[in-house]
Design goal:
The complex is a heterodimer of chains A (263) and B (287). With 263 residues, chain A is α/β, with parallel strands linked by helices. Helix content of chain A is 37%, strand content 24%. Chain A contains ten helices and ten strands. In chain B, α8 packs across α9. The N terminus of chain B is likely disordered. Classes of the chains: A alpha/beta (263), B mainly alpha (287). At the A-B interface, α3, β6, α4 and α6 of A face α8 and α9 of B.
Chain lengths: 263, 287
């Protein structure tokens, strides 16, 4: 991986990232006008690790994920994907995006394309696979979630949970180094949340590297290796679910989880 | 619900009674619409036949004899309309799409082009079609830059200039109506800006704006008839020539009938396209 990236540009500083760190966010700042959304945020996601990003609405979770995916430009700091500094403006952004799988809250799937075309789009158009090869791979992924008979359907014919699971398949298609999940169950009927979270749990078992923003506290507690709690654009907590969620010492953190428990 | 699903179980008396009532309602609705249509035709016929000048109007606008006489010449003129229409369709699509794409860019490099595009759409939508035709039809040759240009070519240019402004605005609305997440999702997959536009945004936008677009195209094919004002011998001009010789206005009606017939394929295409989208991409029924 390091060799592949060396060709892009000479990095301003040699990569500080060890082999087992997939993502390193280093002192990232993001402002929108007067508002500082992310205020020197630093965190690592190690290979095969699942990190849950928690925080109240507006704490900066989504913005951080957008920065990692280059949908937003950082105002300071660096983000490393493997040994690539993806905040370097000289890198090929499309190539970086292709290394990261992303699933959003909703409107992930392209409504004018069948399920199979959605899943194979990047393989065919970005990575120039043949349709046959792409569809073969896609069918394996769809079969794993028992959706193979929906392959020729349009997304509007699927339930919200099925749509999100297809979106995850699409994100997995090119075997991304990192999977970003941005509140993927927030727009779902509570009864459909389970099937999507189960799928995430399975991916984790298979060794995926996941950074997910979520409001599902129970799921974060059980599935994540590490919890990162954002508060007003800063990292308030960063530790194991047991440390952060079960035995928080900070009063504001206690209040945050208590508020969720009251709901 | 289709009938096969319903037949598979015993229908209750309540449902049978409701079904009977609905059937009666539907029958009444059909009878009412037939009745009102007949009444309208009768009223119009009575008013016309009782107007003192009706025989003369009928003779000058709806004379079967002149209809048959003018038909071949007007049809020949219509061939020019069709040629102009085809070229104008392609030209308008290209220019309209370019204008719309320029207008939705955000890059600072494109700023001057963006302003120009906005100016263009604002001005061109404000000028009456006829004035654009005169400006292009008589203004461009007046420059004496290009030698003799065919009137039909100038007319086509004018139509393209005017209609691409309308098309551009419709397209822009369509592009902006596609949910931002769709663009984000496409970019997240690694698609380039151009691929995102071509594979995701444009196809989805077209689905939303198809009826409005079709409307503009039908309106355009009608306005193609205005090139006659430049002296190009199209269907309207051909009709005019016959009128000048015979002092009978029926040829204009011939031209109108032909224009209506020409719009039918567009309308059918639009209906077919909307229906296909509805059945294939949208789950559930219409409410």
């Amino acid at each position: 991986m390091a060799a592949q990236d060396a060709s892009t540009t000479v990095a301003p500083s040699p990569s500080p990232v060890e082999e087992r760190v997939t993502l390193r966010v280093d002192g990232v700042v993001k402002r929108f006008g007067e508002h500082t959304i992310l205020d020197h945020v630093s965190l690592d996601v190690r290979k095969h690790e699942t990190v849950a990003l928690l925080g109240a609405s507006g704490s900066g979770k989504s913005t951080l994920l957008k920065c990692v995916n280059l949908l937003e430009q950082v105002d300071d700091g660096q983000i490393w994907l493997g040994s690539t500094d993806i905040t370097d403006p000289r890198i090929d952004q499309d190539a970086v995006r292709a290394r990261i799988g992303v699933v959003f809250q909703q409107f992930n799937l392209f409504s004018h394309m069948r399920v199979i075309d959605n899943v194979t789009l990047a393989a065919r158009k970005v990575h120039k696979w043949s349709r046959a090869k792409a569809e073969e791979k896609a069918m394996i992924l769809l079969r794993r979630i028992n959706m193979e008979e929906k392959a020729r359907e349009y997304p509007d014919r699927l339930s919200g949970g099925q749509q999100q699971r297809v979106a995850i398949c699409r994100a997995l298609m090119m075997e991304p180094e990192l999977l970003l999940l941005d509140e993927i169950t927030s727009a779902l009927d509570p009864l459909l949340v389970g099937e999507v979270l189960e799928m995430v749990e399975e991916l984790k078992q298979q060794g995926a590297t996941i950074l997910m923003a979520t409001h599902e506290m129970g799921f974060a507690h059980d599935a994540a290796d590490r919890i990162v709690l954002l508060r007003r654009g800063r990292i308030a907590e960063n530790g194991s679910p047991a440390e952060v969620m079960d035995h928080p010492t900070d009063p504001e953190t206690q209040e945050f989880f208590a508020a969720y428990n009251r709901v | 619900m289709d009938d096969s699903a319903r037949a598979s179980y015993e229908v209750s008396a309540v449902e049978r009674e409701r079904e009977e009532y609905r059937r009666k309602q539907r029958r009444n609705a059909i009878l009412t619409s037939i009745g009102s249509s007949v009444a309208l035709v009768v009223v119009v016929a009575l008013v016309l036949s009782n107007s003192p000048g009706w025989p003369r109007v009928r003779e000058s606008f709806f004379s079967p004899e002149y209809f048959v006489r003018a038909w071949p010449q007007v049809v020949e003129g219509l061939m020019l309309n069709i040629r102009v229409l085809v070229v104008a369709l392609v030209g308008t699509s290209i220019l309209g799409l370019s204008l719309a794409l320029i207008r939705i860019t955000t890059s600072p490099v494109m700023f001057p082009l963006r302003v120009l595009a906005q100016l263009y759409t604002t001005i061109m939508r404000g000028i009456p079609m006829l004035v654009v035709l005169y400006l292009v039809g008589f203004g461009i040759p007046g420059l004496e830059l290009f030698g003799r240009i065919d009137k039909a070519v100038l007319g086509t240019i004018a139509v393209v200039m005017s209609y691409s402004a309308y098309i551009a605005e419709v397209l822009r609305a369509g592009f902006e109506d596609v949910h931002p997440s769709q663009r984000a999702a496409a970019r997240a997959l690694g698609l380039t800006t151009t691929q995102t536009m071509r594979l995701v945004i444009i196809p989805q936008a077209l689905r939303k704006i198809a009826p409005a677009l079709m409307n503009d195209f039908i309106s355009m094919q009608k306005d193609v008839g205005l090139i006659s004002t430049l002296g190009a011998v199209d269907a309207v001009r051909a009709a005019q020539i016959v009128v000048a010789k015979t002092y009978n206005f029926t040829p204009y009606v011939v031209a109108s009938v032909l224009f209506i017939l020409m719009s039918v394929p567009f309308i059918l295409l639009n209906d077919w396209y909307s229906e296909r989208l509805r059945t294939r991409e949208q789950a559930g029924g219409m409410v």
